[in-house]
TrEMBL record:
GO MF, any single term: oxidized purine DNA binding
GO annotation terms (biological process): base-excision repair; mismatch repair
NCBIfam families from the UniProt entry: mutY (TIGR01084)
Domain of life from the UniProt record: Bacteria
UniProt domain HhH-GPD: residue ranges: 43-194
Cofactor(s) needed: [4Fe-4S] cluster
This protein's UniProt keywords: 4Fe-4S, DNA damage, DNA repair, Glycosidase, Hydrolase, Iron, Iron-sulfur, Metal-binding
Name of the molecule in the record: Adenine DNA glycosylase
Reaction(s) this enzyme catalyzes, per UniProt: Hydrolyzes free adenine bases from 7,8-dihydro-8-oxoguanine:adenine mismatched double-stranded DNA, leaving an apurinic site
Known EC number: 3.2.2.31
Role played: Adenine glycosylase active on G-A mispairs. MutY also corrects error-prone DNA synthesis past GO lesions which are due to the oxidatively damaged form of guanine: 7,8-dihydro-8-oxoguanine (8-oxo-dGTP).
Length: 360
DNA sequence: TAGACGTGGGA
DNA sequence: TTCCCAAGTCT
């Protein structure tokens, strides 16, 4: 199971030659700039290359250096991030940019140990940056690498458990090339992404088919072992889009719920689908007040939005307030004109609805 | 430390 | 439709 030194040398030689012939030319691989490498790594956390690529291009364009990102408003950073998901990545990235700019003269720490102290950088990302930008011989273990190691070396422990992670890390430390850790880590990741894919890998075309544990035992479908218990919560969200002229009432989401830092509308959450708005007045006294001042129209379509741990069923109502009415908004809520609404960071669901309703 | 955190794509 | 997955991290 644990490879000996000779096996490690052979493995590295084969892997590197595969990488040199087969890797994709990705922009963040053309640079040693730790800032750009960091941007790409954060963007790619739990994200496919195809999905992250346009965001990477836009961030580099908009914020060419860590100082540019540090100088930006968090709101604008979130807006540029809109649609990528896991928005804490954007908030942490912005925080870290300011820290690097202000406390480190714009220079990123050069070891994985120090990088690990920065917000938004865990074991994987710290190792990735340390090896890619500074050639530190540390293994960067992401989902691809877990899969490659589990299959080739037959590691059957749960990659999501702490003991499992330790076992993988121990093997990974043996494997990582001391001469060229940057290429080694890129190669492991790329090999997992292109050849040793999660579903139906083409093992006939694999350079390791003569020595792969999973192939030998036909366990490609069982490895790696991931034991996850995921409970899906169903929620019913009812949004009142208060509108006066071209202005909408929006507010920034705070607290521990989803979409923190993003903007949405007056939200009334119910325990069951709310078919008539009257039932919502009981749940929200503010709504009752607004209702008297305007005209309510329902958006007929019911939206379903799926998150990792939640399944959202969402309804929208427009509440049109005549220009002559003056209304008091609850704390944190404000009117935003058309241009401002466009510029605000919003959950993709909100953006979609505003487009489908021909507001944006 | 187990659970939470987005979105889109493919089988 | 439903499920799983995708360059993980935070609390």
């Amino acid at each position: 199971m644990i490879p000996d030194d000779l096996e490690v040398i052979d493995f590295n030689r084969r892997l590197k030659s595969w990488y040199l012939e087969n890797h994709r030319p990705l922009p963040w691989r053309e640079t040693k700039d730790p800032y750009k490498i960091w941007l790409s790594e954060v963007i790619l956390q739990q994200t496919r290359v195809a999905q992250g690529m346009p965001y990477y291009e836009r961030f580099v364009e908009q914020y060419p250096t860590v100082f540019d990102l540090a100088a930006a408003d968090e709101r604008d950073v979130l807006r540029l991030w809109q649609g990528l998901g896991y928005y804490s990545r954007a908030r942490n990235m912005h925080f870290t940019a300011r820290q690097v700019a202000n406390d480190h003269n714009g220079r990123f720490p050069e070891t994985s140990e120090k990088l690990l102290k920065l917000k938004g950088l865990g074991q994987y990302t710290a190792a990735a940056i340390a090896s890619f930008a500074f050639d530190e011989p540390v293994p960067a273990i992401d989902g691809n690498v877990y899969r490659v190691m589990a299959r080739i070396f037959g590691i059957e422990s749960d990659m999501l458990s702490n003991e499992g992670k330790k076992e993988f890390a121990a093997v990974a430390r043996q494997l990582v090339s001391k001469d060229d850790p940057a290429t080694y880590n890129q190669a492991m990741i790329e090999f997992g992404a292109l050849q040793c894919v999660p579903a139906s890998p083409n093992c006939m075309a694999c350079i390791f088919k003569d020595s792969c544990f999973a192939y030998e035992h036909q366990m490609q479908g069982q490895l790696p072992v991931k034991i996850k218990k995921l409970t899906i919560k169903h929620r019913f969200l009812n949004y009142i889009i208060i509108r006066q002229g071209d202005r909408l009432v929006m507010h920034e989401r705070r607290g521990r719920d989803i979409w923190k830092g993003l903007y949405d509308f007056l939200l009334i959450e119910s325990k069951a689908p709310a078919t008539n708005p009257d039932s919502l007045t009981i749940l929200d006294p503010n709504f009752q007040n607004f209702l008297k001042k305007g005209r309510l129209t329902e958006v007929p379509k019911v939206y379903s939005h799926i998150l990792t741990h939640q399944r959202l069923q969402v309804r929208f109502w427009w509440l049109e307030i005549p220009e002559t009415e003056r209304i008091d908004l609850p704390h944190g809520m404000a009117f935003y004109n058309h241009e401002e609404v466009e510029e605000l960071p919003k959950p993709i669901l909100i953006d979609t609805v505003l487009r489908e309703e021909n507001y944006l």
